[in-house]
Amino acid sequence: MSQINPESILVNEYIWLKPPAKEYSQALYNVISFNRIDSANKTAYIGYWLDSRIQGHGIMTQALHALTKYYAEGRIIKRFVIKCSTDNSKSNQVAKRCGFSYEGTLKQAEYLNGIYHDQNIYALISSYL
Questions:
Q1: pTM reported for the whole predicted model
Q2: For a tag site, which of 11, 20, 51, 106 has the least CB within 10 Å?
Q3: What is the 8-class DSSP label of residue 127?
Q4: Could you report the per-residue pLDDT of 15-25, keeping only the tens digit for each?
């Protein structure tokens, strides 16, 4: 598993990652970004997506660690928030592995593919990093 260097991959609050295999190098297979930033409260809402063909290599866990560390150490963001479907166990596990604390569940909070989904909310406070 390669290490991620935040300075070389952060572009306008997006992280672009190189997939672990050469055959994936010409397409977009992963994204992690700030979906929304509340500047007044120094809070960033994080979203991420990883193609199923390259899951299980710790890529998103590394990316999330790099993103939070970079913005916490720079004192740019105080509170990081992740909202993910209660049905998305892999996304929930990424948040937990990166030290995010479960704060609660929003009922029927996201309308996706014609269905309302419950969302878990996780947060990480940068003073804990």
A1: 0.76
A2: 11
A3: G
A4: 444 545 455 45
